């Protein structure tokens, strides 16, 4: 039996970094391993409020990231030393743990969206993260960096030509039991609650970062695709929703767009969806893509991160250029396609990416780390 320490600001069900750590914890525990947590609570940051609101939320997020990156690093390293022989894996912020999972490269994300220098300068969190990660990748803080896609592995190397740790590529997984195709009754119930007719195509967007994930392109695409296409937007703060509602295309098509706000469980809405739209500028390995595929929902996405690794154009979804025209063309194709075939292919793709397989691959990485020569410990 192994002892595995997971270092992450939060660990819990849902999408995002905390969700990945949660699923790995479940799989390893199921196999009989002892899994320990080091989170913001263990780092002594429980006094920092959860991010809420526009200004206060950004300040709270900044405080949490800075705390876990600095104080959290020192305390996490001490926690690891107190458990000799344990395998340690870090999912975000802290510079501690033998294995680090690269859940995203902020510099790559800003470059993908354009106006790189301006985006970096106007957001102190981006600047802090970039400086911190330059230290992370140029030192022996970790032995191995796990990238979630081959594309991110290449990006990491191009952005950090003096990369010190070894790297591996392990894509995220999906719980194919929890995320399963809905019954006909469940599907009809969701669509009925939204007022979506049987002959209408329901496109769903899931995400809290509207700009990076391309919600504006999905909204603008309604000008160019059949009137039978409806859009449901899951996620985002009230301020973000208000701003997106004011977009000219959103005003023109207000009757075709439903904003449901933040939701702890995307399955509620995926059960009624015909397609997930995620025309992101940058992604590492978005969980929601595999979750949608597992529920038999095809995906419209861009060729970024792991999306191009799991979505097969014209088979279980569509890969598009990042434009409203590209999204509209895919939505139009969907309205004319054999949707039962798309749904079956989506489910088949997801079955190849179960969390049990992913967890086993991480254990292989731990084995490789275990035979590596000891590294010199660095001061926090």
Task: Give a structural overview.
- The protein is of the alpha/beta class and 380 residues long.
- The protein folds into 2 domains: 3-173 and 355-370, 3-Layer(aba) Sandwich (Rossmann fold); 184-351, Glycogen Phosphorylase B (Rossmann fold, 3-Layer(aba) Sandwich), CATH 3.40.50.2000.
- It has helices spanning 17-30, 55-81, 106-113, 116-121, 124-137, 150-159, 184-194, 210-213, 215-221, 238-245, 248-252, 267-270, 287-294, 307-310, 324-336, 339-351, 355-370, and strands at 3-7, 34-38, 87-90, 99-102, 144-147, 166-169, 201-206, 229-234, 257-261, 275-278, 299-302, 317-320.
- The protein has a 6-stranded parallel β-sheet, sandwiched between helices. A 6-stranded parallel β-sheet has the order 9-8-7-10-11-12, sandwiched between helices.
- Helix 6 links the parallel strand 5 and strand 6 (166-169).
- It is globular.
- Mean pLDDT is 93; it is low at 373-380.
- Its EC number is 2.4.-.-.
- Belongs to the glycosyltransferase group 1 family. Glycosyltransferase 4 subfamily.
Major sheet: arrangement of strands: 2-1-3-4-5-6
Count of domain modules: 2
Total number of strands: 12
CATH architecture tag of the largest domain:
3-Layer(aba) Sandwich
| Largest sheet features | 6 strands, parallel
Low-confidence stretches: 373-380
């Amino acid at each position: 039996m192994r002892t595995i320490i997971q270092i992450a600001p939060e660990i819990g069900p849902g999408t995002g970094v905390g969700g990945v750590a949660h699923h790995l914890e479940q799989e390893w525990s199921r196999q009989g391993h002892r899994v320990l947590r080091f989170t913001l609570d263990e780092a002594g940051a429980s006094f920092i409020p959860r991010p809420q609101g526009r200004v206060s939320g950004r300040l709270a997020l900044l405080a949490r990231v800075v705390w876990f990156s600095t104080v959290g690093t020192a305390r996490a390293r001490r926690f690891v030393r107190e458990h000799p022989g344990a395998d340690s894996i870090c999912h975000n912020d802290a510079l501690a743990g033998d294995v680090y999972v690269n859940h995203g490269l902020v510099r790559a994300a800003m470059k993908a969206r354009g106006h790189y220098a301006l985006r970096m300068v106007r957001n102190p969190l981006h600047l802090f993260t970039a400086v911190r990660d330059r230290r992370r990748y140029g030192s022996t803080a970790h032995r191995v960096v796990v990238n979630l896609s081959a594309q991110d592995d290449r990006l990491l190397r191009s952005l950090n030509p003096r990369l010190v740790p070894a790297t591996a590529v392990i894509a995220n997984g999906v719980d194919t039991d929890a995320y399963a195709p809905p019954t006909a009754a469940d599907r009809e119930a969701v669509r009925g609650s939204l007022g979506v007719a049987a002959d209408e195509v329901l496109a769903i967007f899931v995400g809290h970062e509207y700009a990076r994930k391309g919600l504006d392109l999905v909204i603008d695409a309604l000008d160019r695709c059949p009137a039978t296409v409806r859009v449901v937007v899951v996620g985002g703060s009230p301020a973000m929703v208000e701003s997106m509602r004011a977009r000219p295309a959103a005003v023109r098509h207000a009757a075709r767009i439903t904003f449901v706000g933040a939701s702890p469980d995307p399955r509620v809405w995926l059960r009624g969806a015909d397609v997930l739209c995620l025309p992101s500028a940058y992604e590492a390995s978005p969980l929601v893509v595999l979750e949608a595929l597992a529920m038999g929902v095809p995906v419209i996405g861009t060729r970024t991160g792991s999306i191009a690794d799991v979505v097969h154009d014209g088979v279980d979804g569509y890969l598009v250029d990042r434009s409203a025209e590209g999204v509209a063309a895919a939505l139009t194709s969907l309205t004319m396609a054999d949707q039962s075939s798309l749904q079956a292919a989506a489910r088949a793709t997801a079955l190849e990416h179960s969390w049990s397989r992913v967890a086993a691959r991480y254990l292989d990485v731990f084995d490789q780390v275990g035979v590596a020569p000891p590294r010199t410990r660095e001061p926090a």
